C-alpha cells in the first residue's frame, strides 16, 4: 500500500484483502456475527486519487467498474461523509476510482477503497493516522474498513472493531481466482443459520499465529473458513474451483476468501504462483486470475 502525490492530486492504492482464516464465533442479539479472521493484503488492488479544492464527488472507471454498483452508494463517498461528520470543516474533494478488483468476491475491494479514501482525506487535512475520528468513521462505514486502514496483516475480531497488533508473516505467494459471479455476504451467513445469541467457540489469544512458514501452514489447516461450506451450498462452482486449485503444482493450501466467491491458493515462491496464473487464466476466460504476494 503506497501513497503518492501527483500534480494537484493525492493517490493511494487500495489493496485486495485476503482472509487467510475466518472463524464465525457466534451471532449477537442484534443480528451481527462475531468473527475471528487472520487478514493479509496483496500487492494488487484498486487505485484511488483525490483532487482537492472542489466539491465532494466520485467517478469510477476500470475493468471491474460495472460491478461496483451506483456511484451514490459507493463506500468511498460514505466514508468521506462519515469523516466529515466528525471533523469540523474537513476539506473534501473529487475522488477518481480505478476498479481492478471484482465486486462481491470476498476481497474487500469496497472496504479497501473506503479505507484509502480516509487515508487520502487524513493526508489532505493533516490528520494523524491514529486520530480516533478516522477509526470511528471506518467502523461506521463497514466491518472490514478498520482492518484495511493500514494494510498490515492482523487478526480481526468482533464485528471488525477489535484488531490485534500487526502479525509477522513469512513470505507467501498466491494466485487469486474469481470465478465470474458474486456471492452476497448476507446470503452466505443466512445459510450458516446461527440463531441470535448462539456461540460456536472462543477467540484465540494474540500471538497464536506462527512466524515460521511450515508452522503457519499447519495453523491455517487447523483454522479454516467457516463460511466455505455455506458458500459451496449456494454455488457449487466454488467447490469445483477449490478442487482445481488444490491440483496446481506447488499449491500448499487452497481456500475461499471471506464470504466468497474468490478463492486463493498459496505457494512458497513467486514462480509457482505466476505459473499457476498462467495455467489457469488462458484456459478460463470468464475467470479473474491474478498472481500476487501477500503483505508481511
From TrEMBL:
Any single GO molecular-function term of the entry would be: ATP binding
Q: What class of enzyme is it?
A: transferase
Superkingdom of this entry's organism? Bacteria
* Catalytic residues as annotated in Swiss-Prot or TrEMBL: 17, 144
**Cross-referenced SUPFAM superfamilies, in alphabetical order?**
GHMP Kinase, C-terminal domain, Ribosomal protein S5 domain 2-like
The cross-references to Pfam families, in alphabetical order and at most eight, read:
GHMP_kinases_C, GHMP_kinases_N
EC identifiers of the protein: 2.7.1.148
Question: Where does the chain bind ATP?
Answer: 102-112
Give the InterPro entries listed for this entry. Answer: GHMP_kinase_C_dom, GHMP_kinase_C_sf, GHMP_kinase_N_dom, IspE, Ribosomal_Su5_D2-typ_SF, Ribsml_uS5_D2-typ_fold_subgr
**Residue span(s) of domain GHMP kinase N-terminal:** 74-151
List the keywords (alphabetical): ATP-binding, Isoprene biosynthesis, Kinase, Nucleotide-binding, Transferase
Q: In which pathway does it act?
A: Isoprenoid biosynthesis; isopentenyl diphosphate biosynthesis via DXP pathway; isopentenyl diphosphate from 1-deoxy-D-xylulose 5-phosphate: step 3/6
For this protein, the record's HAMAP family field holds: IspE (MF_00061)
Q: What does this protein do?
A: Catalyzes the phosphorylation of the position 2 hydroxy group of 4-diphosphocytidyl-2C-methyl-D-erythritol.
| Protein family (similarity comment) | Belongs to the GHMP kinase family. IspE subfamily.
- The name under which this protein is listed is 4-diphosphocytidyl-2-C-methyl-D-erythritol kinase
Q: Which organism is it from?
A: Rhodoplanes elegans
Gene that encodes the chain: ispE
Amino acid at each position: 500500500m503506497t501513497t503518492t502525490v501527483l500534480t494537484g492530486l493525492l493517490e493511494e492504492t487500495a489493496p485486495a484483502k485476503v482472509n487467510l482464516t475466518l472463524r464465525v464465533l457466534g451471532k449477537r442479539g442484534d443480528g451481527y456475527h462475531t468473527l475471528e479472521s487472520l487478514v493479509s493484503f496483496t500487492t494488487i488492488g484498486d487505485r484511488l486519487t483525490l483532487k482537492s479544492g472542489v466539491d465532494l464527488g466520485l467517478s469510477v472507471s476500470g475493468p471491474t467498474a460495472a460491478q461496483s454498483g451506483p456511484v451514490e452508494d459507493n463506500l468511498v463517498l460514505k466514508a468521506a461523509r462519515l469523516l466529515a461528520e466528525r471533523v469540523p470543516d474537513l476539506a473534501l474533494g473529487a475522488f477518481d476510482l480505478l476498479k481492478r478488483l471484482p465486486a462481491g468476491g470476498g476481497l474487500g475491494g469496497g472496504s479497501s477503497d473506503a479505507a484509502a479514501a480516509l487515508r487520502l482525506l487524513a493526508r489532505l487535512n493533516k490528520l494523524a493516522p491514529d486520530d480516533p475520528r478516522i477509526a470511528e468513521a471506518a467502523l461506521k462505514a463497514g466491518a472490514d474498513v478498520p482492518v484495511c486502514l493500514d494494510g498490515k496483516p492482523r487478526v480481526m475480531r468482533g464485528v471488525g472493531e477489535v484488531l490485534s497488533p500487526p502479525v509477522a508473516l513469512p513470505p507467501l505467494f498466491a494466485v487469486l481466482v474469481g470465478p465470474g459471479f458474486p456471492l452476497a455476504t448476507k446470503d452466505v451467513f443466512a445459510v450458516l443459520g446461527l440463531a441470535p445469541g448462539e456461540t460456536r467457540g472462543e477467540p484465540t489469544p494474540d500471538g497464536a499465529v506462527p512466524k515460521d512458514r511450515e508452522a503457519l501452514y499447519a495453523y491455517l489447516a487447523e483454522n479454516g473458513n467457516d463460511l466455505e461450506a455455506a458458500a459451496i451450498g449456494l454455488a457449487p462452482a466454488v467447490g469445483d474451483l477449490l478442487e482445481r486449485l488444490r491440483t496446481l503444482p506447488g499449491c500448499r493450501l487452497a481456500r475461499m476468501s471471506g464470504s466468497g466467491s474468490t478463492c486463493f491458493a498459496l505457494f512458497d515462491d513467486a514462480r509457482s504462483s505466476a505459473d499457476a496464473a498462467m495455467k489457469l487464466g488462458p484456459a478460463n476466460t470468464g475467470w479473474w486470475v491474478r498472481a500476487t504476494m501477500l503483505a508481511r
